[in-house]
Amino acid sequence: MESLEKILVQHPFVEGLPSEHISLIVGCAKNAVFEPGKYLFKENDEANNFYIIRSGKVAIEIYSPEVGSIIIQTLGEGDIIGWSWMVPPYQWRFDARAVELTRVIELDATCLRNKCESDPRLGYELMKRVANVFEQRINAMRLQLLDLYGRK
Amino acid sequence: MQVMFPSTYKVQRFIKETHYTFTIELKSLESRNGFSFEPGQFNMIYIFGVGEIPISISGDPNKSGILVHTTRAVGTVTKQMAKLKKDDIVGIRGPFGKPWPVKEAIGNDVLLVAGGIGLAPLRPVIYHLLSNREYYGRIILLYGARTPQDILYRKELEKLRSRLDIDIIVTVDRAVKNWTGNVGVVTTLIPRAPFDPLNTIAMICGPEIMMRYTIVELIKRGLSKENIYVSMERNMKCGVGFCGHCQYGTEFVCKDGPVFNYKEIEHLFGKREI
Question: Closest residue of A to B117, CA-based?
Fold first, then answer.
């Protein structure tokens, strides 16, 4: 577990957290690898995990029966995947597919939620960090919808 | 140079870049020394009988024989320009405007952030930096296009990406099948771009709203406002600050810009009525 803690401590998402909080998070964490094309999760699956990307690239997709899968955004090293694990009913709203070989830290969502409930300081810190990512993604999506670069 | 009187140039080459953008390469018809410009400057291009518009110079500042412009067919003049053929004649007035701060950037990392056709005015910076490579730290280009088909200078970017002394990260707003690159607006690339925020000069060109959000992300990364430069677009007519068409607060985009230090125009930037 020591090596996982070392890896985690360098990740921007947990940067600056006190060591006792990092230890709590590590208690819910394991390494995982996804081959290109493999899904980390699919829409409507239970959000049982939370992912911190160490390397690689993941496409966040939404499926439309007429068009098929549409990539909304790609995420890479330094990014986290998903906030559905934190918000009831804990169900994924998108698909997440590895575009290339992707190494992640996979956190057990139930374990993490329980720790957040019993340690509100940890819960609040994680909530702020996830909210920050949420805000960035919403802003990015708004810009995407504006179709900035002109009509076809 | 008579600033109000166009010199005549002949179309040497017409290159269709994407389905709505094109590049024209021009050669002077007048027996004078080669045209020289600095990265970021623009010319007023005259299509005789139609009108005149400002377009940034997108060629290599070290090559004075050929004048290169890339634009998009959107208005009356550019739609006529899109029909130009080899040997057609156009008028040129210029170069005008304040350039990108390539001298001030010496000794620093240089971050270029381009959106859509905003890559064209930054292209001379890339040429300049690479031909003076030893004077700069890391060089990073973050480029956002609408779709993979809209990526400007695609072959040139592919070639540049094989170099080890420049980092190029491209993203598209909308992907198509088989696209394995990044998807998302160009601002999403900033948090993980490899530059030292304390020693970086950022140069941004694209739609104003894209520049606004880019600046927010750059400041979050620790860049100071003094180290951020933007290129503004306005309706320019004379090119030399006489007519006032391009007035931007107390500034004129044609002569005080188009490149501005963000700190200097922060109070104007993003205002709706300017």
Answer: A149
ipTM of the complex: 0.85
Report CB contact under 8 Å: B173, A144.
yes
* Encoded tokens for B10: 């002949």
Nearest to B184 among A12, A70, A74 (CB): A74
Considering only CB atoms, B192 lies closest to which of A73, A76, A139, namely: A76
Decide if B188 and A140 are in contact by the 8 Å CB cutoff. yes
Chain B CB contacts of A72 under 8 Å are 183-184
Q: pLDDT per position in chain A (152 positions), as tens?
A: 457 888 888 888 898 899 999 999 999 999 999 999 999 999 999 999 999 999 999 999 998 888 888 899 999 998 999 889 999 999 999 999 999 999 999 999 999 999 999 999 999 999 999 999 889 889 888 888 888 886 55
Nearest CA in chain A to B180: A99
Task: Please judge whether A149 and B187 are an interchain contact, meaning their C-beta atoms are less than 8 angstroms apart.
Answer: no
The DSSP output letter for B6 is: P
Residue count of chain A? 152
**How far is residue B212's CA from residue A140's CA, in Å, rounded to a whole number?**
12
Please check whether residue B24 is in contact with residue B78, taking contact to mean a CB–CB distance below 8 angstroms.
no
Adjacent-strand bridge partners of B115: B144
Decide: B260 and B268 in contact? Cβ < 8 Å.
no
- Could you give the CA distance from residue B20 to residue B73 in angstroms, rounded to a whole number? 6
φ, ψ at B245 (rounded to 5°): -60, -35
Gap between the Cα atoms of B72 and A114, Å rounded: 55
The strand pairing partners of A59, in sequence order, are A74, A97
Question: Which residues on chain B are in Cβ contact (under 8 Å) with A144?
Answer: 173-174, 184-185
Taking the C-alpha atoms of residue B193 and residue B111, their distance in angstroms, rounded to an integer, is 9
pTM of the predicted model as reported, rounded to 2 decimal places: 0.91
Cβ-count burial of A92 within 10 angstroms (0-12 exposed, 13-18 middle, 19+ buried)?
buried
SS3 A94: coil
C-beta atoms of A12 and B181 within 8 A: no
A117 touches chain B (CB under 8 A): no
A106 lies within 8 A of chain B by CB = no
- As a residue count, chain B comes to 274
What's the Rg (C-alpha) of chain B?
A: 18
* Beta carbons of B175 and A77 less than 8 Å apart: no
